[in-house]
Amino acid sequence: MSTSITLKRHAELVDRMANALGVDLEEKVMEGKIDFDGISDAVLSCTGCAGPEDCVHWLALNDEGADAPPGMCRNSDLFAALKAGKRI
């Protein structure tokens, strides 16, 4: 898979995971809680995941909302911090 396709896929996964957790990444950027580099780092971290299909399956079951990401999520600490209103 090409690098750009991989990055787009994982950017979508990061965004979907944030939305499922009730975290609006655009809003968090505007609030100064995270910058675009932080989101880019989250996407890069996501690309290192060995089980993106597990994430896709989890999201299919939890798109309506969840309290926490699945245990295998490489960005679970980031999402927890943003959900708690912390600055990254």
Report Rg. Answer: 12 Å
Strand content: under 5%
- Considering DSSP H and I runs of 4 or more, what fraction of the residues is helical? 55-70%
Low-confidence stretches: none
Quote the average pLDDT: 96
Strand-and-helix sequence, N→C?
A: HHHHH
Structural class: mainly alpha
Commentary on this structure:
This protein is an all-alpha fold and 88 residues long. It is built from five helices and no strands. Helix 1 crosses helix 3 and helix 1 runs parallel beside helix 4. The longest helix is centred in the first third of the chain and has 18 residues. It is globular, with a radius of gyration of 12 Å. The model has no long low-confidence stretch (mean pLDDT 96).
Which features characterize this protein?
globular
Summary, kept brief:
The chain is mostly helical and 88 residues long. The protein has helices at 3-20, 25-30, 36-47, 52-62, 76-83.
Topology (elements, then pairings):
Layout: H1 3-20, H2 25-30, H3 36-47, H4 52-62, H5 76-83
Helix pairs in contact: 1-3, 1-4
